[in-house]
Every structure is written in structure tokens, then in C-alpha cells.
Amino acid sequence: MELFLQLTLTGLTNGAIFALVALGFVLIYKSSDVINFAQGELLLVGAYLIYAFVAELGFPWSVGILITLGLAVVVGVLVERFVLRPLIGEPIISVIMVTIGLSSLLRAIVNAIWGTYGRAFPAFIPSTNVYIFGAVVPADRLIAIGLSLLLLGAFTLFFRYSPDGIAMRATADDQQAALSMGISVKHIFAVAWSISAVTAAVAGALVANIVGVSGDVSRIGLRVFPVVILGGLDSVPGAVIGGVIIGLLEVYTGGYIGSGLSQVLPFIALILILMIRPYGLFGEERIERV
Amino acid sequence: MLTLNNVEVIYNDVILVLKGMSLEVPEGKIVALLGSNGAGKTTTLKAISGLLKPDDGEVTEGDIIFQGQRIDTLDAADIVRAGIFQVMEGRRVFEHLTTEENLRAGAYIRRGQGQFKRDLQLVYEYFPHLHQRRNQQAGYLSGGEQQMLAIGRALMARPKLMLLDEPSLGLAPLLVASIFDIVRRINRDKGTTILLVEQNARMALDIADYGYIMEGGRIVLEGETGKLRDNEDVKEFYLGLTEVGQRKSYRDVKHYKRRKRWLS
Ligand SMILES: Nc1ncnc2c1ncn2[C@@H]1O[C@H](COP(=O)(O)OP(=O)(O)OP(=O)(O)O)[C@@H](O)[C@H]1O
Ligand SMILES: [Mg+2]
User: Fold this and answer.
1) For residue A173, which residues of chain B lie inside 8 Å, CB to CB?
2) Domain-wise residue ranges, chain A
3) How many A from CA of B85 to the centre of ligand 1?
4) Is the CB of B92 less than 8 angstroms away from the CB of A174?
5) Whose CA is nearest to atom 29 of ligand 1?
6) Three-state DSSP state, B209
7) Which of 166-225 (B) contact A at CB < 8 A?
């Protein structure tokens, strides 16, 4: 029972971080149908920026994080201006290929500045242990859950009620019709990438806080693929539930069966679910109707 | 209010579709733009609203003036903000958004002005049907309801000039009549100027003040709607065709020649 609780809590934390990263994918996919292969590298850049401001330049935590989030917005705007805008009218697949290029570029920049070896991330969240029903959980993991939930809640509200959120979903549905409402697609793409980069920076900090800051931070970008496909590429609730399912599956398999299987099982679950629901658990079906 | 001077539109850098298109829409009026399939009606509207870009089309000659300002060089978003709103052919509602979210999207340029509730009320007055379906996904609305939503969305932006592209397309006759009735009311009550593209010439000429007929990318005939209705060519090729039983004119060589004259 104690092992079960322990695994569950660990799985939930991982799941919360997965959900946050998945949200970044969903935002970009929802507004532009682009699968962003550079999402993991956005995490990496976020983690290193916070590391640079706090550990290298000696800023207080709060300031370091705020500057990083501000820079994340700038990254989003730059990507729209210099990567996406020149590709308007090109097939989506070209844009997707470009995000692969972008991921190499971001990684190269990080490597050039900070080198390839890992460093300890100055723990900004206390990792004192908390006991819940006999299970031991480091506080930083609990905070990761809380922070993820907060952000996810904020985005759900954003999509449902704010003009830009609704405009983003409208753009995803029918770009030309959105344009006819006076919705600027450029603006929407910039907002989507900015928010995506901001969530990535937060997720990057949470991951780095747990595993240290190194190139490994971006690996989570790939681990999140089954999450987004499982939840539905275009669904915010799907990202959350998909994140939690994969997070739990991974640790349960690791804890009860063996760690070898824990990275494989998510993909098996994925295939099973896609056989029943081809658009993922919460993905939008194409409405066939005249 | 709106003037097109010798506008030329080219798609994909090679396909010339509008060839010296000129027309004028006076403030407060309803102007009908008629023509057969492929005449270039939709292209004309998109040239005005700046929506050619996603179709890889471009205004290459001439100019489009709206309230004294040249708009053919502006972005679609700026044109909407200037007061022109196009209701696109085929309704184009946002399928995965609810009815009300679609209306919110229509009000996008007026966000932050705090008049959303009032405008919403007004749209529901015009279209009580939409109120019943306000929380339903728009993709599952009927064709008629979607057309109402498309017009409602336009109302939310409070345009000065509304461009309507075949609002009667695919609707049952009774619905067509009610849609046209609404268009007339919008024009009368709110003073919104309307440029109406239609295949349904009879209805369009009934509610419009002035009409243009286009063929092959340019205007071939224009006039007060009363005069157009009496015009022999219009009677045969636009009004006649809508009535079964008069199709024999198709086979008539003389008529064919008259049609040719327009096309050349
Ligand atoms: N994106 C495009 N690329 C190339 N040619 C196009 C494009 N859109 C329209 N055309 C061509 O331009 C011509 C005019 O098309 P348009 O859609 O403006 O006609 P329309 O009068 O609206 O016809 P309909 O009554 O069928 O809607 C047609 O010959 C069409 O094939
Ligand atoms: Mg058309």
C-alpha cells in the first residue's frame, strides 16, 4: 500500500509536468495544425535561462524567473516573425520540418554557451520531504503538481472565455473565416508560440529542479508525444488526462514490473486507445456535414 | 461609400479572373451583384475584404476606395476594422465552437468595448432560433441555422458595409425568403450598406436598390433594379432560368447570340 501511494504520487507529479509540456504542443497544434518538434528544446532554453540568471548572474529567484518568462514571450514572437511568417501558404509539413530545424538550432545555441555537461540546478523549490499517508514525497514535486494545475486551469479559462482564446480556436477551425472576422492570424500564431514557450520555460524549470540542468531536460519533449496523441492533439483537457495516465503508467510499470518496460508501455497503451478512439481520448472529430 | 475602379485580380500569378471590374456601392443602399457560376463574384468580394491572400490571389491593377481611403493595400484585419465585413460563401461557421462562441469570434474587433451583451441580444432578436441553440456546437446546426449564424456573426462586428456571398445557397425556399427579409431589415433598421452576391436573381433584385450583372470578370450590365427586372436579357438568363418551363430559351439561337455578346 505504501509503495502504491508512493508510486501514485510520483506518477502524478510526472503526469503534471507531462501535461504542462503537452499543453505547449496542443496550443501550437490547435492554432496552426503544426506539430512542434522543438517543444523539448524550448524547455531546455527556459531551464538554462533561469540557471544563467540565478546561478551565474546572481539575480534573486523571482527576478530570474520573470525575466525568463519575458524572454519566452520574445522567443514566441521571434519564431512567428522569422520562422512562421515566411512560410505562410506553404504546406504544413514544411513548417513541421522547420520546427525540427529549430530544435537543432536551439540545442546548438545552448551547447555553444553552456557546453554539453550537466550542472546542478540551484534548488529554488525546497525539496524537504512531506509525509502523506505514510508515503514520502519531496515538496518540490508537490509544488510542481500545484503549479501545473494552476497553469492548466488558467489556460482552460483562457480558451473558453477570452477573445484571443476563442480567436485561437476559431483560427484552428477555419483560418480564412477567422481572417474574415478581423482576426489576425499572425497575432494568433505569435500568442500561441509565446504561451507555449512560457509553459515550456516553467516546465523546464520544474524538470531541471528535479533532475538538474543538462541536455536531458529536452528529452521530455519526446516522452510527451504519447501523451498528446493519447489525449487528442487539440484538446487541453486531453493534455491533462493524457499526462496523468502516462505519468502513472510509467511509474506503475517501473515499480511493479520492471523499469525496462516503463518507457514502452505508454506506447502500447497509446496503440490500444487509438484503435478505439482515432482522434485520441478528447480529440475533436472532423464534423462531416453540409 | 465603396468604389472599385478597373480592378484586375490574378490568382497564382497567372490566372486572370477580374478584368477591369468597376462598381459603386452608395451608402445606405442594397446593391446586388449577379452573374453565372465562375463570373468572378466571389473574387470581387474577396478583393474588397482582403481575403484573396490565402487563395494566392492578388489585386494587380486598379484600386478599391472605401470612404475615401484606399483599401486594396490593407490587411484583411485592417479592412474589417475599417468597417467592411464579408459573410463568406458556404457559411463557414466555426464548427467546433458553440453558437455563442462563434458570435464572440464575430465580435473580435470590438473586444474590450463592453457592448458584447447588448450586441448578442440584438442578434438573438433577429434570430431567436440561434438563442435556443446558443450552447450547441455550430457544426451540428442545420444549414439554415448556420446561415443565420454567419449573418449574426457579421452583425456582432457592427460593420458599415456588409458583403453577403450567396446567403440563399442550399436553403429551402421558405428559409430563403426569411433570410432576405432579415437582410432588408438589417439595412433598414441599422442603416448597414449591403453588397449582395446572389444566384437567386429574382429575390436579390426584389430587395436591392441597384444591380450589377457580371460575366467573365467584368460588369456587363447595370441599373436600377426596376429597370433590370424589365430588361429582356435579364428576364431570360437570370429570372427566366429560375422558373422551370422557360428553359427552352437555352436552345434558341438568337438568345444564344445575345448571351455571347455579354461574354465577349
Ligand atoms: N484560388 C483560385 N485559384 C485559381 N482560380 C480561381 C481561384 N478561385 C477562383 N478561381 C477562378 O476564378 C473564376 C471566378 O471564380 P469566383 O469564385 O469568383 O466565381 P463566382 O462568380 O463566385 O462563382 P460561383 O457563382 O460559382 O460562386 C473561376 O473561373 C474560378 O475557377
Ligand atoms: Mg462565388
Assistant:
1) 94-97
2) 2-221
3) 20
4) yes
5) B38
6) coil
7) 170
The neighbour count for residue A133, using CB atoms within 10 Å, is 9
Task: Report whether pLDDT(A8) > 90.
Answer: no
CB distance B105–A175 less than 8 Å?
no
Q: What is the pLDDT of residue B34?
A: 93
Q: Looking at residue A144, what DSSP letter applies?
A: H
Residue B235 is predicted with a pLDDT of 77
Report pLDDT digits (tens) over B151-172. 999 999 999 999 999 999 888 8
The phi, psi pair for B32, rounded to 5°, reads: -100, 140
Q: Letter for the amino acid at B219?
A: I
User: CB under 8 Å to A222, separation ≥6 — which residues?
Assistant: A40
For residue B79, give the chain A residue with the closest CA.
A182
ipTM over 0.90: no
- Could you tell me the distance, in angstroms and rounded to a whole number, from the CA of residue B17 to the centre of ligand 1? 7
Q: Is the dihedral of CA B53, A161, B84, B67 positive or negative?
A: negative
Cβ–Cβ gap B92/A180 under 8 Å: yes
Give SS3 for B164.
strand
Q: What is the pLDDT of residues B51-62, one digit of tens each?
A: 998 888 999 999
Of B88, B92, B105, the CB nearest to A166: B105
CA dihedral A73, A77, A80, A85 (to 10 degrees): 170
Cell, residue B14: 497567372
